[in-house]
Amino acid sequence: MSTPTGDNAFLHALELNVRAELTLAETSQPWEDAVRVPIDEWLSDPADDQRYEVGLRSLLGAVEALEHGSGPSDHAPPAEAPESVITAAHLPNGPGPGTETQGW
């Protein structure tokens, strides 16, 4: 395994840090056990802990995508996007139907 350089070194270090933090989050007290403890004895809110773990997983996915070179340029051009997807580029200049505020 070669040592990453430049931006890759930063991304690699970030990935290692996120993986370490995710390991800590995964091995912390299970949510089911945490909510059985009286609320005044909580070290942290179990719901916050779950959101934190989800955020770490999202961050790890983003870092991995950047490391492997799949960035915004790898997305399909708008002409190849599914018809059900509406982006700002597809919106008309004026308000859409049903957005009038007459009578307010």
Describe the structure.
The protein has helices at 7-26, 31-34, 46-67. It is an all-alpha fold. The protein is elongated. It contains three helices and no strands. Helix content is 44%, strand content 0%. The N and C termini lie far apart (66 Å). The mean pLDDT is 74.
Main features:
0% strand; elongated; 104 residues; mainly alpha; single chain; 3 helices
Global geometry: elongated
The helix/strand class is mainly alpha
Radius of gyration using CA atoms only:
22 Å
How many E strands? 0
Report helical residue fraction.
Answer: 40-55%
- Whole-number mean pLDDT: 74
Percentage of residues in DSSP E strands: under 5%
Topology:
Blueprint: H1 7-26, H2 31-34, H3 46-67
Helix pairs in contact: 1-3
In short:
With 104 residues, the protein is mainly α. The chain contains three helices and no strands.
